[in-house]
Design brief:
five-stranded parallel beta sheet; 506 residues; 5 strands; mainly alpha; globular; Rossmann fold
């Protein structure tokens, strides 16, 4: 490599250290273009693309670096990317090689623990976590992963021992602290110590709020978006019928519902069918909603003369979807993203005959479950760092859905989570009839199929367990703590038939 390229490579590496990943990416690309056999440049570009979130492209450059030169950094990076792409067998292979080269490097061991746990190989995950903790007992990331592994194995007392915290034995990093609180609370709940569990969930939420100083701005973004959709539906109700743009292709089906209501469970059930392809939350709808917002402006509405624009959005939908998901000919695509019910007007514009699966769960259970879940924070999920904000988000977003049902001519099938886990065959047969799909005995073992794929939601633990009823009416364990939000949710508890007349609660 000539001196000029060597200098450019060194500068790109320095930019990585300084956190200037975009500048580093440009430098690495120049070196790769000039010297395609440069392993350092491919490796550096791979790391920069990971930071950017371009995991597929990162994987390609890391594989090139791996072919040119095997070392622990390349094997580690490839294992990390493959885990997040759901290629867990590849991840295990690369991380095993990395551990052979660097047996006690903590970031490699943590990546291996996470990959094993995501792949439900809990014995291997536990052994690797123990190796790291033997070497460094105060590695808090390893402790929270060990706590999770032991909890999933039903070893609750052992799990709790890894999450004990005091003034001198507490991580300074708020992310690590929130994970430890989250695992401890879930374990306390599993052994029915509900008051302690709730206090720990509160500490978990407080650590999240401390870590994300821009929560209020995030909440404002989501609320403004929801209010916009509500006002558009209101305007549409006054102006006349919604515009209709026929779609002659095979429309996707859409799974929607408030988060933690059973949407991932339904997606996993349908994914066990041979003729169904699921989106695994790679839905283009939110991006296309932003395109529609720009087109309409704050007060406009799409009209019947906007056919060409709608056709463009349809083309973009399939292009974006197929960049993430391989849809086989003849398969029904099931697009699942819970909050897409807020964007239902767009879905109806693109695919007016689409079948909508609305998954419903007791509102108190949905809000409680969101509050106790360690979500990746965005404008919508920012509401779940407090029960009150979560209840507000439920009421605000569900008001859009209720308006949509009166304004739009939607083809909707409602499934209650509580009924699904109690009477699986009856509820699934009703789903299949709605979607024009045939029963298959593979549906009875959907959880085994789910264990073979990467599930991009916090529900990956639950759906691989099969059916269980312990989460039905979970809110009753926290009835006293939830009393302040009951008034906010009461209209929806009654409207969704979860009031005093609901026999399933008895």
């Amino acid at each position: 490599m000539d001196a000029k390229l060597e200098k450019k490579l060194a500068k790109a590496k320095k930019e990585v250290v300084c956190g200037q990943h975009k500048v580093a990416e440009e430098g690495f690309r120049e070196v790769v273009a000039a010297d395609p056999q440069n392993a350092d440049a491919h490796l550096g570009l791979g790391f920069s693309l990971i930071e950017k979130g371009a995991l597929d492209e990162a994987c390609g450059h890391l594989r090139t670096a791996y072919a040119l030169r095997l070392d622990e950094n390349t094997a580690y990076a490839l294992g990390h990317v493959c885990t997040h792409l759901g290629k867990l067998d590849d991840a295990e292979k690369f991380l095993t090689q990395a551990m052979e080269i660097a047996p006690y490097r903590s970031d490699i061991l943590l990546a291996a623990i996470f990959a094993y746990e995501q792949g439900h190989k809990l014995d291997e995950a536990e052994a690797t976590a123990q190796r790291l903790l033997d070497h460094n007992p105060n590695n808090f990331s390893a402790r929270h992963l060990m706590a999770r592994i032991l909890r999933r194995q039903g070893k609750y007392e052992e799990s709790l021992s890894y999450t004990e915290l005091d003034g001198e034995n507490k991580p300074l990093d708020l992310v690590e602290l929130s994970w430890l609180y989250s695992e401890r609370a879930r374990c306390l709940e599993a052994v029915h110590r509900y008051d302690e569990a709730y206090q720990t969930y509160q500490a978990f939420a407080a650590s999240q709020r401390a870590h994300y100083p821009d929560l209020e701005a995030e909440k404002h973004t989501a609320r403004k978006s929801i209010s916009t959709q509500k006002s558009k539906l209101d305007a549409l109700s006054k102006s006349g019928p919604a515009p209709y743009f026929p779609y002659i292709g095979k429309s996707p089906a859409f799974i929607v519902g408030f988060p933690r209501s059973g949407t991932t469970l339904v997606e996993s059930i349908l994914d066990s069918l041979e003729l169904v392809t699921v989106s695994n939350e790679h839905s283009p709808v939110p991006f296309l909603q932003s395109r529609l917002n720009i087109k309409e402006g704050p007060h406009g509405l799409i009209g019947q003369d906007d056919y060409q624009f709608v056709e463009e959005l349809r083309g973009e939908y399939w292009t974006l979807l197929r960049s993430k998901v391989e849809v086989s000919p003849g398969h029904l695509l099931v697009d699942k993203l819970p909050f897409n019910f807020v964007n239902i007007r767009l879905i109806h514009l693109l695919f007016p005959n689409a079948k909508i699966l609305f998954i419903r769960r007791h509102p108190l259970d949905s809000v409680l479950s969101c509050f106790t879940q360690n979500f990746e924070i965005n404008s919508y999920m920012s509401h779940f760092t407090s029960l009150e904000d979560g209840a507000y988000m439920y009421a605000h977003s569900m008001s859009v859905w209720r308006d949509a049902l009166t304004v739009l001519n939607l083809d909707v099938h409602v499934t209650r989570y509580e009924d699904l886990v109690e009477d699986f065959k009856t509820q699934v047969r009703a789903l299949l009839a709605f979607l024009n799909l045939e029963w298959s005995d593979s549906l009875l073992t959907f959880h085994r199929h789910a264990a073979t794929r990467k599930i991009n939601t916090p529900s990956y633990e639950q759906v691989t367990q099969g059916l269980y009823t312990t989460s039905r009416y979970r809110w009753k364990n926290y009835e006293r703590q939830l009393r302040p939000i009951e008034k906010i949710l009461e209209p929806f508890i009654d409207a969704f038939d979860y009031g005093e007349g609901d026999a399933s609660q008895r």
